[in-house]
């Protein structure tokens, strides 16, 4: 009988106290040397390996650490550096990573960073690989091998982690026409072969090669590329073909023919056809069972998990157990949470606890003693029983049956006329997306209030001072639609989680979103409702300071859902409707105090899309219905905005139309303003604000570049429907950067207004 071993697919690289974020930001601000940055990274890696080994993980992932994101790691590994980042330096080093991710100002011009997208249906981001006909690839970035040697020297049982060649190509983008990125496959495979040859010289058994796109609906062309690729790179070491986030059985005919020695599947997915997989993959293959959910924070019902494993063992004896995916999607350590009740804590499992769950399962499988599993799983059952609320379930069912959410406002053509008459905005109205810089003093103010170092009266007065500063600043620039700056908010989702019933907020539950950007997702533990207004006080005060319209700022139901750790005992759609009903109360209260522009952000609408197309329709139906439920009772003159981040808009354009908002603002500065072609093609008639300032970069856009982009946008969107704005909130930027950037936006817009008024 084969000994069962445990492994994780990856571990959070940010450090328990966000040490990586702090080191990166010190390096970017010249407060850290390169050597100090490297030292901090090494400390985090070694600490991660030690923690996993101490908790009983047998195979330790190496190569899961990255300085920005793991797809960009692969870009560096393959030497796939876009030409514009080579012009000022012939050296490929860590600064190349940050230039590609953030852009930079060269002596000649602003070098635009590579595009950023969401990693499948998560809130993690990756830098999109770029491909041209003449793209060259070379093994020039040795970080993976260096880390493998580092871990072996410390006597860890190492499992190298690499993003697979087909998924890497899939995740990228052609930057020229008339060629397909799969045309570059052989070039890339030569580098993969070289890397694997280097790994073969090391003391390792398994290589984890990740091909997450095998959970998607793939064309024959992409599926055919798998057989060719894995024949090309096959190794003397064992290759664990690794998939996650969904079922792969629909692609089993391709998978079972690959020259690999093992397959990892996510069996936390309810649609996983595990028995069919067992019957179809080669008997000699190792089947790695992703039994511990790497995407949510609930403690695993280990009683149920071991029953599942034992059923699988009847068909497949050669198995190992692991996390469903990398643990980068969950916080690191539950033990540091000292403000959560003992009962609530007993329901949760973070990265370290998930490693312990694997150890408990392995021990029970070896000894056949399940007593520890029963003890661990007892709180899981009590939580589910506690959450049962027949009254709330009936309320949602009644709501869905009566279809209240399908009641529509007047058509946009009528609403827009009433809004223009009421708001009296100029052509090309200028606004921002919502947040202003979250300076150290602002963060300290919120922390002091949280720690009760200052009174609520003092806190409110300081918040008002900041709001006043932001309003006067916008007025001085002659911005048309103002925002209050969100200085009272720590995060666009966490803030509402703190205000609504049904949420649990952690103290240190940080998760990486991209680069140094970390978020602290709230946990939805029970039914959601609003017991008091959440934004009214601040919006009312902001509007009292100016005659210009203030934009009310809310986060939409789908985004709060996607960016929280959600309940696993009811359907997502039910939670979305609960959120929508709570937000509807806030929207109507904003309207009552005279806020006639309300932005309900849904940057996660595309992110929530299921991986399989067969499930898209159902998701988009309840997602758009829950969004419309938030605002359908408002008056025609109340203008509804929404904001969306980088995504594949092609996939959701029909849903965007269905949202029927008056104004949609988009992150487009990194992708291409020609995204507006898509809206033109679909005859989108409502108003649009594409991003004219990349807030993810410290580079200040020039008046000329903004004006040129504006004039390009006007080829696709009429001047009466085009808004001017940055492509996202300004919280991560500093005041000096935004002042110059916004001044340039206003000047460029005024130039274009004059130009078109003369025509």
Automatic annotation (TrEMBL):
SUPFAM superfamilies: UROD/MetE-like. 5-methyltetrahydropteroyltri-L-glutamate binds at residues 18-21, 118, 123, 517-518, 563, 607. Zn(2+) 1 binds at residues 643, 645, 667, 728. GO terms for biological process: methionine biosynthetic process; methylation. InterPro entries: Cbl-indep_Met_Synth_N, Cobalamin-indep_Met_synthase, Met_Synth_C/arc, UROD/MetE-like_sf. The keyword Lyase does not apply. The keyword Amino-acid biosynthesis applies. The gene is metE. Its cofactor is Zn(2+). Gene3D superfamilies: 3.20.20.210. GO terms for molecular function: 5-methyltetrahydropteroyltriglutamate-homocysteine S-methyltransferase activity; zinc ion binding. This is 5-methyltetrahydropteroyltriglutamate--homocysteine methyltransferase. Binds 1 zinc ion per subunit. Binds 2 Zn(2+) ions per subunit. L-methionine binds at residues 433-435, 486, 601. It comes from Buchnera aphidicola. Pathway: Amino-acid biosynthesis; L-methionine biosynthesis via de novo pathway; L-methionine from L-homocysteine (MetE route): step 1/1. It holds the Pfam family Meth_synt_1. The active site is at 696 (proton donor).
């Amino acid at each position: 009988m084969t000994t069962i071993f445990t492994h994780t697919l990856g571990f959070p690289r940010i450090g328990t106290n966000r040490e990586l974020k702090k080191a990166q930001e010190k390096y970017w601000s010249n407060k850290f040397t390169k050597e100090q940055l490297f030292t901090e990274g090494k400390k985090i890696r070694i600490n991660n390996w030690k923690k996993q080994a101490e908790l009983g993980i047998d195979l330790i992932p190496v190569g899961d650490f990255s300085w920005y994101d793991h797809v960009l790691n692969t870009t560096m590994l393959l030497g796939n550096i876009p030409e514009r980042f080579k012009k000022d330096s012939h050296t490929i080093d860590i600064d190349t990573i940050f230039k590609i991710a953030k852009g930079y100002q060269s002596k000649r011009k602003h070098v635009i960073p590579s595009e950023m997208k969401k990693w499948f249906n998560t809130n993690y981001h990756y830098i999109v690989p770029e491909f041209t006909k003449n793209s060259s690839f070379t093994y020039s970035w040795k970080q993976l091998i260096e880390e493998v040697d580092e871990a072996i020297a410390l006597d860890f049982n190492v499992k190298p982690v690499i993003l697979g060649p087909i998924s890497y190509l899939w995740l990228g983008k052609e930057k020229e026409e008339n060629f397909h990125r799969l045309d570059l496959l052989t070039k890339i495979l030569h580098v993969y072969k070289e890397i694997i040859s280097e790994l073969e010289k090391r003391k390792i058994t398994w290589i984890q090669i990740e091909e997450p796109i095998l959970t998607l609906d793939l064309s024959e062309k992409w599926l055919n590329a798998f057989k060719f690729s894995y024949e090309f790179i096959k190794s003397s070491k064992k290759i664990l073909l690794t998939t996650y986030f969904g079922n792969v059985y629909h692609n089993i005919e391709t998978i079972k023919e690959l020259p690999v020695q093992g397959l990892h599947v996510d069996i936390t997915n309810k649609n996983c056809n595990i028995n069919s997989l067992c019957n179809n993959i080669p008997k000699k293959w190792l089947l790695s069972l992703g039994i511990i959910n790497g995407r949510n924070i609930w403690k695993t019902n280990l009683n149920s998990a071991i029953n599942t494993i034992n059923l699988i063992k009847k068909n497949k004896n050669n198995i190992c157990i692991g996390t469903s995916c990398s643990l980068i999607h969950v916080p690191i350590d539950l033990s540091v949470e000292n403000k959560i009740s003992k009962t609530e804590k007993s329901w949760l499992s973070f990265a370290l606890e998930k490693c312990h769950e694997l150890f408990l399962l392995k021990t029970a499988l070896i000894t056949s003693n399940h007593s520890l599993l029963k003890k661990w799983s007892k709180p899981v059952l009590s939580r589910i029983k506690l959450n049962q609320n027949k009254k709330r379930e009936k309320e949602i069912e009644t709501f869905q049956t009566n279809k209240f959410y399908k009641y529509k406002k007047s058509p946009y053509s009528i609403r827009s006329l009433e809004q223009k008459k009421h708001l009296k905005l100029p052509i090309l109205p200028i606004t921002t997306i919502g947040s202003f810089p979250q300076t150290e003093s602002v963060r300290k103010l919120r922390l002091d209030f949280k720690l009760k170092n200052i009174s609520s009266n003092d806190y409110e007065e300081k918040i008002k001072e900041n709001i006043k500063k932001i309003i006067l600043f916008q007025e001085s620039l002659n911005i048309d639609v103002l925002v209050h700056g969100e200085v009272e908010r720590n995060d666009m989702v966490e803030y509402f989680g703190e205000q609504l019933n049904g949420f649990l907020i952690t103290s240190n539950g940080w998760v990486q979103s991209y680069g140094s950007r970390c978020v602290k997702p709230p946990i939805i533990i029970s039914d959601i409702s609003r017991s008091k207004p959440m934004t009214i006080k601040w919006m009312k005060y902001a509007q009292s300071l100016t005659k210009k319209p203030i934009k009310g700022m809310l986060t939409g139901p789908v985004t709060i859902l996607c960016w929280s750790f959600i309940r696993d005992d009811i359907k997502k759609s039910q939670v979305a409707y609960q959120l929508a009903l709570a937000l509807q109360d806030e929207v109507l209260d904003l309207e009552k105090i005279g806020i006639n522009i309300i932005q309900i952000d849904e940057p996660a609408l595309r992110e929530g899309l299921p991986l399989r197309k067969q499930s898209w329709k159902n998701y988009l139906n309840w997602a758009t219905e829950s969004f419309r439920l938030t605002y359908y009772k408002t008056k025609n003159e109340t203008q509804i905005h929404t904001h969306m981040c980088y995504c594949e808009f092609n996939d959701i354009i029909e849903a965007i139309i269905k949202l029927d908002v008056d104004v949609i603002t988009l992150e487009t500065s990194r992708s291409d303003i020609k995204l507006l072609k898509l809206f033109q093609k679909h005859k989108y008639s409502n108003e649009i604000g594409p991003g004219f300032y990349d807030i993810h970069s410290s580079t200040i856009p020039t008046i000329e570049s903004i004006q040129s982009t504006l004039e390009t946008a006007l080829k696709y969107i009429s001047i009466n429907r085009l808004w001017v704005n940055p492509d996202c909130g300004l919280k991560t930027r500093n005041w000096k950067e935004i002042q110059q950037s916004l001044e340039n936006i206003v000047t460029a817009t005024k130039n274009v207004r004059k130009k078109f008024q003369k025509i």
